[in-house]
Specification:
12 strands, Rossmann fold, 2 domains, Arc Repressor Mutant, subunit A, alpha/beta
Amino acid sequence: MRPRRAWHDDGVRVLVVEDEASLREGIVDLLQGDGHDVVAVGDGVAGVESGLRTAFDLVVLDLMLPRLDGMEVCRKLRAARPGMPILMLTARGSEDDKVRGLMEGADDYVTKPFSARELLARVRVLGRRNAGAGDAVDSVDADGATLDLARMMVVRGEARVALTPREVGIVRWLHKHKDRVVTRAELLEHVFGQRGDLQTRAVDMAIAVLRKKVESDPAHPRVIVSVKGAGYAWGSVA
C-alpha cells in the first residue's frame, strides 16, 4: 500500500485495485496529483477487503486480477456498498464484456490504454456523484415498479434489483426533463462526464442494461423510450 499525500478539500477517496505494478503506481500518482486520497492494492481479495473496510467515494477496478477476478470483486462490493461507484478498467474490447461489467454493477468502464485526461474526468464525475442532487426526486412509480432512487433499487412486487449511481443519474436526468427528448450528448455531458460530441456507444449500452432493470418488457420499453435520430424520452413526449 502506497503512502498518502495531502489531499484537497474537493478531492475524493479512491480505492485502486490493479495488479500491474507500473500501471497501479501511475494511476496513484495521477490521482494524488489531482488532489485525491488514494489507497492501492494489487489483487482481488485485497480489493474486497479494503472496499468492505472503508467507505470509498470511488473504486477504480481492473477486470483481470489474481486471486479474485474483477467481475467477482465488483459483485461483492456492489452487494455490500450499493452506493459506492465503481469504474472498471479493462483491456478487453468486446461489447459483451462491457455489458457484463455494467450488469455486475460497474458504473462505467475505461478500455486500456486510456489517457490521463479521460481517467481523471471519469473519477471526478463518479466520485462526486451526489453533487447537485439535493432537489431531485427520490422515488418514481413506472411500469408497475417503484424506482427507489434514494435507496438505489427497483422494486417490482417482491423482487429487488440494485441500481448503480450512474443508472440513478440517468433516471433522474430523464425524469427531470420528461417533457422533452433528451439527447445522447446531454447524457454524456451531465451524467457520464464526457464531451457531448464523443463518438461512443456508452450511453446506448447503459440504457440497454438499465432497461433490463426497470422495464417489465425490455424489448418493448415503456419507461425509457428511444426517439429515433434524437435520443431518449421518459415514457413518451407529446
